[in-house]
Amino acid sequence: MKTMQDKYYREIDYARISITDYCNLSCRYCKSEADAILEKQVSQKQLFNLIDVLDELKFRKIRFTGGEPLLNDWIVSLVEYTNNKEHIKDIGLTTNAVLLDKYLDALIKAGLKRINISLDTLDDNKYYEITKTNYLQRVKDNIALAVASELIVKVNVVLLKGVNDNEIVNFLEFGRLNNVQIRFIELMPIGENDDFIKDKQLNIRDKFKNYQSREKKPNCKDVSDYYIDEYGYCFGIISPISNHFCERCNRIRFTSDGKLRLCLHSDNELDIYEYLNKKEELKALILNYIKEKPEKHYLNENMKANKGMSKIGG
Ligand code: SAM
C-alpha cells in the first residue's frame, strides 16, 4: 500500500496525537475559562493500537502534543513504541518545556528526533501575563539543555499585537546566541477566546517586510517561510491566515478523547474512541474518513473552529 492520499491528491502522512488535554500553563489565547476537561481519555494501549494502524497506513511522521504532553507519564513509552515501527521515521514533540529536564534524556534514548518548544516572551512580567505562571527561567534553562542535546530544536513564538510584537529583535538575538531556530507564528482565531484573539491578531507578514526572504526548495513540505536577519541568522514565519498552506497540508489530528480531526479549523470530527481497540476496523475508518479532508480552511471567510487548541492538540 502506498501513502494515503486525499481527494485533492495531498499525501497524508503526518499525524499529531494529543495525549492529554491538561496543561500546566493558562495561555490567554489558548485555554479558555469555558474549556471543560474532556470527558474521555484514551488509554496507553489504545494509543499503541493507533500507532500500529498509522504505521500500517504508512505514516511517516508523528508529533505528540496536548494540552501539555509532558504531563502524561506515557510519553516516553509512546515515543519508544513509535520508534520501533517500520514506516514512522520522524517523531516529534510540542511542549512548553516546563518539565523537559525531567524527561529529556529518556525521550532521546526512546527515539525522539525533534522538539518544538513554545515560548511567547523573554520578559518575566509578560510571561506571567500570558501564561499566569512564573516558569520563564526554567523554560530558558530547558531550551539550553535541549539545544545541547542531539535533538532538532525549534522555538515557536505566537505573535500577539501589543503584547510581544516588540520582542522580535530580542527573539532573533536569543535564537542567534543560543543557536536555536525561532519561528514566529500568526495568532489564529480558534476556540472560545474570540474577543482576546481579535484584539491581539496581526498580519505577521507585515512585521517582516524589511527582512530578506530565503528561497524554498521546490516541493518543500515545510510550512514555514524563511527569512534572514542582518547577522545572517535564519528564522521562520508561519502564517496560516495571511498566506495559508492548505494545499500542502499533509496532516491529521487525534484528540486525547479519541476523535479524528482532519483540519485544525473545522470542528467536523469522527469519534473513533471505541474503534481504538479494533485495529482492522480503525484502519478502514481512517482510510475512509480521509476523503472528507477539507480543501482549505475558511478563516478568511470568518468560519472558525470553536474547540480550543488545548483540546485539539496544537
Ligand atoms: N503545551 C504544548 C505547548 O505549549 O507547546 C502543546 C500544546 S499547545 C496547544 C501548542 C501550540 O499551539 C503552542 O505553541 C501554542 O502557542 C499554539 N497555539 C495555541 N492557540 C493558538 C492560536 N490561537 N493561534 C496560534 N497558535 C496557537
Considering the chains and any ligands shown, give keywords for the structure.
alpha/beta, 10 helices, globular, binds S-adenosylmethionine, 314 residues
Offer a concise description of the structure:
The protein has 314 residues and is an alpha/beta fold.
Write up this protein.
It is a single chain. This protein is α/β, with parallel strands linked by helices. The chain is 29% helix and 19% strand. The strands form two sheets. It has a twelve-stranded mixed β-sheet with strand order 9-10-11-8-7-6-5-4-3-12-13-14, covered by helices on one side. Strands 1-2 form a two-stranded antiparallel ribbon. Helix 2 packs parallel to helix 3. The longest helix has 13 residues. The protein is globular. The two termini are 29 Å apart. The relative contact order is 0.17. The mean pLDDT is 93. The structure holds S-adenosylmethionine (SAM). The site of S-adenosylmethionine (SAM) has 20 residues, from strand 5, strand 7 and helix 10.
Q: What is the gyration radius calculated from CA atoms?
A: 19 Å
Structural class: alpha/beta
Bound molecules: S-adenosylmethionine
Question: What's the helix-strand series?
Answer: EEEHEHEHEHHEHEHHEEEEEEHH
Query: Strand tally, please?
Result: 14
Helix content class: 25-40%
Number of continuous helical runs = 10
Q: What general outline do the C-alpha atoms trace? A: globular
Mean pLDDT equals: 93
Proportion of strand residues: 15-25%
Low-pLDDT stretches are: none
Output the strand order for the largest sheet.
Answer: 9-10-11-8-7-6-5-4-3-12-13-14
First and last CA, distance = 29 Å
Largest sheet: 12 strands, mixed
